[in-house]
Each structure stands twice: as C-alpha cells, then as structure tokens.
C-alpha cells in the first residue's frame, strides 16, 4: 500500500545524521512512484515532490546538517498541506436548524453517512436531528434510512416514493421547523454516473433547503475517479465538504491526497466501517502521520505537552542517551506517564507501535503500577542505579520487602531493560537539542 511504501522509504532516511542531496533525490523519486501507484493525481504528485525536494535540499535541512528525521518532518508537513492543512470544522448554522445535504454517486455511502453524522452531531453538539428521505429512485432507499433511524432513535421524514424529491424536502424542512429540530440531514438519490437530470434535481433541493453544508460523499476505493466526480459535483452545487467513506477498506488512498488540491474542497469526515459509530472528523496532520507510519503523533504530542514537565523530560532524555537512566527515573517516568491516561492508548499512538504490539513486556499493566513502585522502593540506592548487581538473594529480599514474588521482581527488571531499549529507539541515534520529549 501507499503507506507501506512511504514507510519503507522513510525508514531508509530516518536514522541519518546527515542527508545529502543525492539521498533526497533518491527519496523523492521513491515518494513520487509510491504516490503515482496509489493513484494520486499526476499534477498533484509533481508539485508535491517539488515542494518536498526544495525544502529538504534547501537550507532548512542541509545547512544545519539536521538528521533524517527532519526530512521526514518536511514530508509529513507537505502531506498535511496537501490534504488541507488545518482541520476543517463542521459549519453549524447561527440560526437553527443546521441543514446538511448529502450528495454523491450511488453506493458511495450517502445514506449510511447521513445516519452516522446525525448520530455523531447529536452527541458532539447536543442536537435534535431529523433525517429527510429524498431518494425515491433506489428500491428500498427510504426503508434503509428508516431502519438506520430506528436503530439510532432518530426520526425520519418521508412521503414515500411517489412524491417529487424537491417537494419532499420542502415539506420536510417545514416539519423540522414546526417540531423544533435544530439539525436536518437530507439523504438524496445517486446515479451510477454523473447525470444532468440528477444535477437539476439536486440544485432544486439545494434551493429549497438552503443547506449549511453540501457534503459530497465519495468512496475512497474509487481513486482518481473520486476526484473527477468531486470536480463535476462542485461545479454545479458548490460543495462545502467531502465525506470520504470506506477508508477502512483496501484502498490505495490516492483520493484522500488529491481531492482537496484538485477541487479546493476539504475532507471533513471519514468513514471507517459499516457500523454507525465508524465515522471520524478528518485531521490532515494525523492522516499524514498515519500514512507515514508515525503513529498518531500529534495526539501524542498534545497529551505529552499537557502532562510532562518539559525540563524533566529533557533531563530524562539526556539520561537515556547517556545510559544513566536508573530505576529511580523509571519510577518517576511511570508517575508522569500515568498522568497521561491509559498506557495502552499511549503506546498505540507511539510511532512504530505495531512493532511493539507483540512484545508483552512493553505493555505496562496499570494495575501493576502500584506493585512496580513497591518493588523499586524496596531496592537500595545502589541497586537502583546498577540493576545488574541484583542477584538471586537480593531479588528474594526485594520481593519480601515489597510483598511480591521473585518472578515479579524479574519481570520488572526485564521491563525496565526493554523500556530503556525502546526509549532509545524512539530517541533515535541523534544527539543535540530536542524540542519535545518524544523527539518528533
Ligand atoms: P448510498 O447509495 O450513497 O446511499 O450508499 P449507502 O449508504 O447505501 O452505502 C453503500 C454501502 O457501503 C453499504 O453497504 C454501506 O454499509 C457501505 N458503507 C458505507 N460507508 C462505509 C464505510 O465507511 N466503510 C465500509 N466498509 N462500508 C461502508
Ligand atoms: Mg442511499
């Protein structure tokens, strides 16, 4: 996949202390191929690669002899830009109701996404939604929306399939107002291809509903074609956002990267599965990190910065690099990490987390933290700085003192060793100042 290929490319450059112009050329050549194979628009690829090359070869990296990681950062930032930079927020009406219109080809996921989003916004913004069934053409389309509405306990306005969709929407809007719904979601019909008759109908629906968002729903698996579809819909309906569905599937991912720069329309939400809760707001930066296999780096930084004392973190890093990281520091670290929320979540967000999944010792069981603290506190100062000196009889003494077993002590020592190794890996082989505790 695109992600695999980019990750392989990044891996080559990641640990570099120096990056030559030839290295950058080689890397951008590989990136270019990976993007083209993922069906990213040719023009988009061309300008993307050029920007990366300019920045990576330019002063930013070479003059300061910054290591490979900085090059990766350039790629990550440019990928983020490509997908729109900042996260684009949902446009809520100042004067209710907020009206969301869903358009797109048949099978793209309009009906599913309308229901998912109704559910999402109801929770996130405490709204009272009404869904309007305006697809009278696809057999059972109305039934489908009603079934989803039933599951979620969200009402559906329908006039059957014998009334003109524009009229259905007009009456649905009236009902929404009279029943004080502050959120209206309009599910429309799709076709297999762009079709004039449908476009006319959608224009009229737009006119009678005056939507705050016109969402184009596109299937991520359709690649380049999704971009053409977006262009066509945008010309007629002035789209305000894209909902990209089926990103959970085996997609080449190219559409997510080109759609914004080709159409100027931001992706606002992504569908990650068939279930009703499988919808997420789209974060370009997080997506870029995911594609590059950097884990959900930004969420991690947010958490880390909110919770870790920067000075202390830097100090700790120095210690790790100089191999003077002791069990006392470990204890301290545990305390800080504990403030950051469930450890499993944190580990999952760390770059290369997949690699650590199988390594049981990496997973610090929260319930065992208390025990861990007790064990470390039962050690002498010397044992804490030189854990290698802890022999069998010392282990027995520590276990007794902490109310644990020798097996527990062994496990902790192993964990400490692994953690040291893991942290070192994260820190990279680079020296010098780091801006944040995770060196990203
Ligand atoms: P519509 O014709 O545009 O209204 O499309 P539907 O909402 O009926 O969806 C078509 C099919 O795609 C259905 O089987 C959905 O369950 C499925 N689908 C929609 N969104 C997603 C998604 O994000 N992931 C997956 N895996 N399937 C989806
Ligand atoms: Mg539908």
Automatic annotation (TrEMBL):
Binding, GTP: 104-111, 187-191, 245-248
Domain SRP54-type proteins GTP-binding, chain residue ranges per copy: 266-279
EC number: 3.6.5.4
Catalytic activity: GTP + H2O = GDP + phosphate + H(+)
Keywords on record: Cytoplasm, GTP-binding, Hydrolase, Nucleotide-binding, Ribonucleoprotein, RNA-binding, Signal recognition particle
Subcellular location per the Swiss-Prot or TrEMBL entry: Cytoplasm
SUPFAM superfamilies hit by this protein: P-loop containing nucleoside triphosphate hydrolases, Signal peptide-binding domain
Gene3D superfamilies recorded: P-loop containing nucleotide triphosphate hydrolases (3.40.50.300), Signal recognition particle SRP54, nucleotide-binding domain (1.20.120.140), Signal recognition particle, SRP54 subunit, M-domain (1.10.260.30)
Plastid as UniProt keyword: no
Entry-linked InterPro entries: AAA+_ATPase (IPR003593), P-loop_NTPase (IPR027417), Signal_recog_part_SRP54_M_sf (IPR036891), Signal_recog_particl_SRP54_hlx (IPR013822), Signal_recog_particle_SRP54_M (IPR004125), SRP (IPR004780), SRP54 (IPR022941), SRP54_GTPase_dom (IPR000897)
Domain description: Composed of three domains: the N-terminal N domain, which is responsible for interactions with the ribosome, the central G domain, which binds GTP, and the C-terminal M domain, which binds the RNA and the signal sequence of the RNC.
Subunit comment: Part of the signal recognition particle protein translocation system, which is composed of SRP and FtsY.
Similarity comment: family membership: Belongs to the GTP-binding SRP family. SRP54 subfamily.
Protein name: Signal recognition particle protein
Organism the protein comes from: Sporolactobacillus kofuensis
Gene that encodes the chain: ffh
